Amino acid sequence: MILEIKNLSKSFGTRKAVENLSLEIPEGSVFGFLGPNGSGKSTTIRMMTDLIRPDEGEVFIQGKSVQKNHHKALGSVGALIEKADFYKHLSAKTNLEMLARMDGIDFSRINYVLDKTGLKNRGEDKVKTYSQGMKQRLGIAQALLSNPKLLILDEPTNGLDPQGMKDVRDLIKDLSSEGITIFISSHLLDEVQKICSHVAMIRLGKLIMTGEVNDLLTEAGVITTEVSVSQLDKAYALLQSIDWVYQTQIVDETLRVSLKKNHISDLVQLLVQNEIQISAVIPRTSLEDLYLSKVGMENIL
């Protein structure tokens, strides 16, 4: 395990932000750290990187305690915590040169990280001309300067448009293929499912579940089914009062229904009995379904 979190707790006044949290992150994994806003994700990351001290517990990176041996534990770590922040009137390359000089990093590394993040042709441009997605990629470039073995990214796609999200997603896949372990905090379940090999879900600072994505999805008791029907509005209204249906949405002229896995045949029968014609039923299991199965519809991210 490249990263181990053991019995971590942190309170702010009377509010318990993180409570007795333990996690193990395998080397080489892309690990998704999931939960709604306010669930304790950012607080946990700040404790992982020693920006704040836990009330209890300890974090180990490659067997070294972050709390007791800060420099050795974090020497192989790169991190982008929340929004990337740079001198906007300077070029991306100049910003990175300043950071490299402070950390004693050879300037030859700068061209590599700009190329790796797709910014090589814009390295001489001022940061104020960058899109939000480019700023996020520049933030990842900064985190890569030290040639880390572990990359920690806090909400790396937050606030990005679809193209920006795809660019960051593709970059994470590329970095993972080079053997870098990546720890990603996010509340965007669909994005995480596309890139993560392992996940942990927390709520109100407590761990709900953790494991390999494929294993957890196999065990999910809830499934999302896309149903093409003749009378969309009638079908939508009908399903609002069914107790084994968690959520019903109309998406691109299709009914998207989250329900208990063993009720798919009941769904089809119900629609047919109400004279609603069905042209297609496509079951899809997702991390959102998994979350629903564990904490219920009222707590959906």
Describe the structure.
It is a single chain. With 301 residues, the chain is an alpha/beta fold. Helices cover 35% and strands 30% of the residues. It is built from eleven helices and 14 strands. The chain has helices at 41-48, 70-74, 92-103, 108-116, 132-144, 162-177, 189-195, 213-219, 232-239, 264-273, 287-295, and strands at residues 3-12, 15-25, 30-34, 56-61, 64-65, 77-80, 150-154, 181-186, 198-203, 206-212, 222-229, 245-251, 254-260, 278-284. The strands form three sheets. Strands 6-7-8-3-9-10 form a six-stranded mixed β-sheet, with helices on both faces. Strand 12 (245-251) and strand 13 form a beta hairpin. The chain starts with a strand and ends in a 6-residue tail after the last helix. Residues 297-301 have low confidence and may be disordered.
Would you tell me the overall average pLDDT? 85
Count of discrete alpha- or pi-helical segments spanning 4 or more residues: 11
Q: What oligomeric state is this?
A: single chain
Order of helices and strands: EEEHEEHEHHHEHEHEEHEHEEHEH
- Output the structural class: alpha/beta
- In percent terms, what proportion of residues is strand? 25-35%
Strand order of the largest sheet: 6-7-8-3-9-10
Helix content: 25-40%
Distance between the termini: 28 Å
- Gross geometry: globular
Largest sheet: 6 strands, mixed
Low-confidence stretches: 297-301
